Amino acid sequence: MSSIDYSEKIPNNVNLAEDRALKRALEQWQPNYLAWWKDMGPDDSQNFDVYLRTAVSVDPQGWAQFGYVKMPEYRWGIFLNPGEADRKIHFGDHLGEAAWQDVPGEYRANLRRIIVTQGDTEPASVEQQRHLGLTCPSQYDLRNLFQVNVEEGRHLWAMVYLLHKYFGRDGREEGEALLERRSGQVDNPRILQAFNEETPDWLSFFMFTYFTDRDGKFQLCALAESSFDPLARTTKFMLTEEAHHMFVGESGISRIIQRTCAAMNELKTDDVGKLRAAGVIDLPTLQRYLNFHFSVTIDLFGADESSNAATFYSTGLKGRFEEGKRTDDHVLKGQTYKVLHVQGGQLVEKEVPMLNALNEVLRDDYIKDSVAGVGRWNKVIEKAGIPLRLQAPHKAFHRNIGSLAGVKVSPDGRVVSEAEWNAHVDHWLPSAADRAFVASLMGRVVEPGKFANWIAPPMMGINRQPVDFEYVRFN
Amino acid sequence: MDMADAAVIKQHLIDPEICIRCNTCEATCPVGAVTHDDRNYVVDAAKCNFCMACIPPCPTGSIDNWRLMPRVRAYTVQEQLGWDELPAEWSAEQLAAEGVVAEGAEGSGPASAALPAASAAGAAAGVAFGTSGAVHAVAYGATLPPWSAAHPYTHLYGPKAAEKSITATVAGNVRVTQVGREYDTHHIVLDFGAMPFPLLEGQSIAIVPPGLDAHGRPHHARQYSIASPRNGERPGYNNASLTVKRVLADHHGQPVRGVASNYLCDLKRGDTVQVIGPFGTSFLMPNHPKSHIVMICTGTGSAPMRAMTEWRRRLRASGKFESGKLMLFFGARTQEELPYFGPLQNLPKDFIDIHLAFSRTPGQPKRYVQDLMRERAADLGPLLADPDAYFYVCGLKAMEEGVVLALRDVAQQAGLAWDSVAAALKREARLHLETY
Predict the structure, then answer these.
(1) Which residues of B touch A379 (CB under 8 A)?
(2) To which CATH superfamily is domain A6-473 assigned?
(3) Structural domain boundaries, residue B405
(4) Degrees, nearest 5: CA angle B218-B223-B227
């Protein structure tokens, strides 16, 4: 591989050409990354020319360059947002000190863990989504899927860059391990459980990109506040890309709703059987998918009380969402926050030290953001003149982490018995029959401008191209 | 009416129905003009400086919405935060009722120079044919208009006409390049009031600068190609626009202040100028369905291209030109110097195929329009052979030969005999050259 000019091949703004040690490390990692991509990247698509966005610099003009590219030849680059001169730590025990340009020894293990956990989700989602291309509802959607995939790949690069650059040999070993774990594999799974679930169909994919990539947004936002400046700068740039992923999810679900509502009005019915016969996804099924993805995703924020969360905050490794825009003391000692737990068969709030509740704080910020988007989906239903509304389930519904794990709670927030849960679970979460029905709709539509029957076309194309643009050339 | 009241802005708005509240625009905005609450992301009209930094990062396209508004009636942040959808555009009557008259889409400040093309701007740029205006320089150029051209009126005003010149009023004057020391190009809107001055895209008018030259004689008139389509810079109004580059050096690079260009660039709204014309009977656009237009220009040679593009854009909804292609090859020294760079970026890609060449971008190899034409030989070849495809070249004299040579190469690559292609282009009035 010595013939490759890495500084040329890897677009970057980190002076890669001048950092020989880093360059050598990446030279050794890159072939393994490409082998992973060929092995676990999108199925049967390595030879397609895909109309993709590539970042070649971090300024507004440079980061969105569009053109056809074969995915294995995508120029995965390394970008940090521009540094802020004399940036100061703005929360935790080190408040007011200069931000770190290198890793302080005492926080090395925790920082590595944070970066590896974040980095692990990136290839995991590519693996989860690798078969979706075979059942895409349109070229436009296929292209969006591939864009999400290559950018998850780039996010892995971003994290591996930090590991290689700042964590020496340990970091390089972690970089290899990131390519060795596999989503859903029993003996070497991905770190977080939600990333070991399958993404079996496009409804799940859109829900995943709406809900789970939004978790990514909140985690990245919290890391963008970090006292470790290279981490803050790299995650800031990742957020720009993450926005596209949430757009895919939000607009995808919105288009499904639009199509369903059109069919409801056309057939003048809300009968699930008739709508399914017409080949569209009924709103109750959408609600159940929503319940599932919402609840699985809010588990990702971790236990509601966590001493790790307190440590990460106080030591300045990970801030809160929009830490810089908050007006409290940014130290949080002696403050409290309300978390839910179960007492005597009831959900009750209890006050706990704020520092220990920071996972819950981030989760609540996330919920507020998610619920707003559900409101926007409801606007589509409202516009169609249909009375039904979608709703995010209660925070305690279907939880598997923290003090709420193990209690059965209905979507409207009542603690229910095991028997009641079992009687209703198929109304609350997607049943096997729901999943089978959704799977039955998944056929491959790839003619430019054509869309599967269960989804409406988008309002506009990518990069001002028309909707019927040839987003993928299959060769 | 006070000037400030009449001032019009192209207000930047975010479509709340498409926006996914990802915060990218707010994070990108260098001047803090984007803000949000729990419901909407909005742009503060008082802060937005139209730098366009937020446009490419937006994943949805919702960021790219514009409304022509009297400045004093601009939507406030509070109003925008309450929206569920964008308000309708103001009609011409509503705007007129607010005192916005015959101003087209031009704003009142330099900021609007960078505005996108929501209503008026097409491709394009400045002109300054110099005074010769002759198009016979090169043997390849046609001397007749396309068969479907509209009939032009010429020489309605001039030395030999009954009326020597008429008075036009400046309705707008804004800069359309970025601020630079060595270049300064203006978009100037002239209103002819009640006087007849029918114009077609590709035609030019001439301006008579006031005063006397060094010999004590009146200045001769300077000709400028119009940058607006036949129904006015603002549709339905008796006005036209020019794109004028301020001349600060002569062809040899010696400092010289161009008489007419400096006069024009310094005009204020409400000033009057003496105008003669119209001129031009052959550099006219085809008007038949499915006709294709290939436009090749440099710097200030793009005014007629803007006019043609804008006319087609206005007619786009008619469906008449549904499969008619527009291709633009546009060269300038740098992006900053390219007139209307912003608006150009905002034309839909399925409407016009745009290729920009910059010859003086630091650190980049020099690129000329001919290079781009050779790169797109696969698309240009069939057009050379297509009787419905028309080629227009406008810019500095020096580009003429290079462009003709590039066309020859394209033809040969497509297996066409250049001699017969060239003869057909000329005979059928499909190749038009206008250089200065």
Answers:
(1) 17, 84
(2) Ribonucleotide Reductase, subunit A (1.10.620.20)
(3) 292-435
(4) 145
